[in-house]
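Posting for a labmate who doesn't have an account.
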Amino acid sequence: MKLPLFTTIHHNELRHIKRLPLLAITAFAIFSAHNAAAQTWNYRSYYNGQPAAPGSVTLSENGGKPSLRMVFSYASICYRGDLDATVERNDTITIITVPPHLRGCDEFRLVIKNDGTGGLREMKKGSAWVWDGAERGLTIRK
């Protein structure tokens, strides 16, 4: 059986096709709102003590629920995927705290200057926060 190159569009199908622009606009609005709430910073990771390829961290706050996504070379499983986070802000810094993602992962936080000029990563050691000693290059990504 040979199928025709063109088929007839029935009235019901045409009605659904007319909705496509509205669906596209709605999807764009949702996507734009998601991205409008996100902030991204550059992030430097290390491998065997040497700087690895440049990466990034993105903070998204959707529906009041913040999450952090870290993208960098040689990421351990502790830093993969969308990580739950809490966010504290004041006039000069933003602190993004990430509880352990999995058993064996450490709690950490990023302390980032609001002017976009840098920041650092701190690890929780007992009840104290300790700088990890590495320059992370936490500058705003433009």
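Reply:
Got it, the structure tokens are right above this. The mean pLDDT is 83.
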